[in-house]
Amino acid sequence: MVWICPLCEQPLVLLERTWACANHHCFDQSKEGYVNLLPAHKKRSKTPGDSVAMINARRLVHDNALYAPLAAQITAIINDCSSVQTVLDIGCGEGYYGDVLTRHHPDLTVYGIDIAKAAVKLAAATYRHHHYAVAGASHLPVDTATIDLALSIFAPINDTELRRALRAGGYFLEVGPAPRHLWELRTALYDEPREHEPSERTRIGLSSIAKGTCNYSRTLDNTLIQALLTATPFAYRGHREKRAVLRTLTYLNTTLSFSWRLYQNT
Fold first, then answer.
1. Within 175-266, where are the H helices?
2. Contact, 108 vs 84, CB < 8 A?
3. Distance between CA 94 and CA 237 in Å, rounded?
4. Pairwise CA distance, residues 237 & 91, whole Å
5. 3-state class of 244 per DSSP?
6. How far apart are CA 19 and CA 212, in angstroms?
7. Element (H or E) spanning 21, and its range?
8. Could you tell me if 260 and 214 are in contact, meaning their C-beta atoms sit under 8 angstroms apart?
9. Which letter does DSSP use for residue 206 in this model?
10. 18: enclosing H helix or E strand
11. Of the given ranges (5-14, 116-125, 208-217, 229-238), which has the lowest mean pLDDT?
12. Which of 99, 85, 117 is nearest to 2 (CA)?
């Protein structure tokens, strides 16, 4: 296991149902199998991260395979990476992408962290063969140089912590929205929708070795329209009247477009 104590950074060992370090800091393992490694003094709110409604809506979106082409693209990218056995899913949500990876590569060991306790709880209850912790990206509760590949899909990253967790030669795959992601949905919400700014930032200590996009379109029924509105910031953005009209549509054709960049720890 790769977990370390969030208080003193010593390795954690599971003793029955408690994770403990050499300095006697202890963290109980939940009945679902995850561990909470986000100390109260590092929280910005009482319940940080996505709400339960957002998390359940995202599970519905994933269950309907709306993001399956993106998951297939991620799997193909990782297929071309050498010596990947340990994956850290940063901002794992309810665990969808980690599950896709291990269905194609059962030998992978997947660790997932998310700041939202409800998301980690759902992930751990669903994917018992993975390892989950409540934690943020600014202080990864992961031992140094233990991760072969880190994955971030629409999640913030701390470059210093990321590089510390990756082994020499390890990979980081970052996925974000391309300029016209969900363009038709955004057009229906805003008078003047704006394109997403492309991510071209340099990652400290990491070399960019590949990049690309994943683009496709889907017809959303009313259930998926409602789920996307709930699962994303669209739930409280855009014109209220337009949002109400959008919720009544029988279907909507929309574009899904993602950009990805693969880095290597040098």
1. 183-189, 222-231, 240-246
2. yes
3. 23
4. 22
5. helix
6. 40
7. none
8. yes
9. E
10. strand 18-20
11. 229-238
12. 85
Judge whether 206 and 163 are in contact, CB under 8 Å.
yes
> Across residues 72-96, what is the average pLDDT?
96
**Band of pLDDT at residue 181, cut at 50, 70 and 90:** very high
Q: Is 238's pLDDT higher than 70? A: no
Tell how many helices (H) and how many strands (E) occur in the chain. 8, 11
End-to-end alpha-carbon separation of the chain, Å? 24
What distances in angstroms separate CA 126 from CA 59, 89, 113, 216, 252, one per listed residue?
A: 11, 16, 15, 28, 30
Read off the pLDDT of each residue in 117-135 and give the average, rounded to a whole number.
97
| Residue among 258, 204, 228 nearest 56 (CA) | 228
* 71 confidence band (pLDDT: 50, 70, 90): very high
Distance CA 110, CA 27 (A): 20
3-state SS track over 54-67: HHHHHHHHHHCCCC
Distance CA 86, CA 150 (A): 9
Percent of the chain exceeding pLDDT 70 equals: 97
Any idea which residue has 């140089």 for tokens? 145
Check: CB of residue 118 under 8 Å from CB of residue 135.
no
Q: At a CB cut-off of 8 Å and minimum separation 6, what does 241 contact?
A: none
Asked if 255 and 184 count as a contact pair (C-beta separation under 8 A), the reply is yes
Alpha carbon distance 172, 77 (integer Å): 11
pTM, two decimal places: 0.94
